[in-house]
Amino acid sequence: MNDFENKMEQVFSLEKKDVPSTVSDIVPSVKEVVVDKEDADKDYTTVRENLKEIVKRGTEAIDGIMMVASETQSPRAYEVVATLIKSVSDANKDLISLHKQMKEIKKIEVQGDNNTSITNNSIFVGSTTDLQKMLKGRLKELDETKFADEQ
User: Fold this and answer.
1) Contacts of 91 (CB under 8 A, 6+ apart)
2) Fewer CB under 10 Å: which end of the chain, C or N?
3) What total of structural domains would you count in the chain?
């Protein structure tokens, strides 16, 4: 601390406070969040049920407010109907989005589980000449890639 800071502390009677020296002192450490497969499935079903209930109640509300709007011919009632229809439409889109997200999560889980694939029995259907042509073609491809890598 320099003289200027000391004088400022004396003039304004400031107390020294602990100043964090690193970012880790300021920000708590972030731990990796592990999502349990069962929890994800439970959350998915809960959210799905909630969205379906929102759509159901929204549809019932639209029916009711439509009756009010047609009886009163109030512009405000029609505005409410339009807003409610938009909300129900958004809930339907959220439901579809939820399905897409869950499908992607399950796809990632499957890819993570099956990193290796083993082929025990493979059969070539064709003549020996076809097999030789195929193998020669593969060798040429390998030679071309090897030649390209050397340049």
Assistant:
1) 51, 54, 55, 58
2) C
3) 1
